[in-house]
């Protein structure tokens, strides 16, 4: 998806405990990010939490964040910390990092 330079961009980093830490959770984050046309990644951290970095249209990132906080079906998000980042405007797609 081509980025519209007139849209307000947002980039965030979420660190999630529970919910996204399973392969199903990572796939759910990947699917939601792709539906929203976001760039970024999801990956497991050594301590068992999950890091998600996503960038795109402000409203799309807001919808993505709500989905992340809910977690995938059947999972419970115990904690979700967010950090705002300066938008990099790099078009890299969204992927699962190992």
Keyphrases for this structure?
98 residues; alpha+beta; Alpha-Beta Plaits; 5-stranded mixed sheet; 5 strands
Note down, in words, how this protein is organized.
Helix 1 runs antiparallel to helix 2 (58-70). Strand 2 (39-44) and strand 3 form a beta hairpin. The protein is of the alpha+beta class. It has 2 helices and 5 strands, in the order βαββαββ. Strands 4-1-3-2-5 form a 5-stranded mixed beta sheet, with helices on one face.
Nutshell version of this structure?
This protein has 98 residues and is of the alpha+beta class.
CATH topology: Alpha-Beta Plaits
How many separate structural domains? 1
Counted beta strands: 5
Overall pLDDT level: 87
Percent in helix: 25-40%
Poorly predicted regions:
none
> How far is it from the N-terminal to the C-terminal residue, by CA?
25 Å
Global morphology: globular
CATH architecture: 2-Layer Sandwich
Give a quick account of the main beta sheet: strands, pairing sense, barrel closure: 5 strands, mixed
CATH class division: Alpha Beta
Summarize the topology.
Blueprint: E1 9-17, H1 23-36, E2 39-44, E3 50-57, H2 58-70, E4 79-85, E5 94-97
Parallel strand pairs: 2-5
Antiparallel strand pairs: 1-3, 1-4, 2-3
């Amino acid at each position: 998806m081509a980025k519209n330079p007139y849209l307000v961009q947002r980039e965030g980093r979420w660190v999630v405990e529970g919910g996204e830490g399973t392969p199903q959770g990572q796939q759910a984050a990947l699917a939601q990010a792709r539906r929203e046309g976001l760039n970024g990644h999801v990956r497991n951290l050594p301590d068992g939490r999950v890091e998600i970095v996503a960038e795109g249209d402000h409203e799309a990132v807001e919808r993505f964040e709500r989905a992340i906080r809910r977690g995938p079906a059947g999972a419970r998000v115990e904690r979700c910390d967010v950090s705002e980042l300066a938008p990099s405007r790099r078009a890299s797609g969204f992927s699962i990092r190992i």
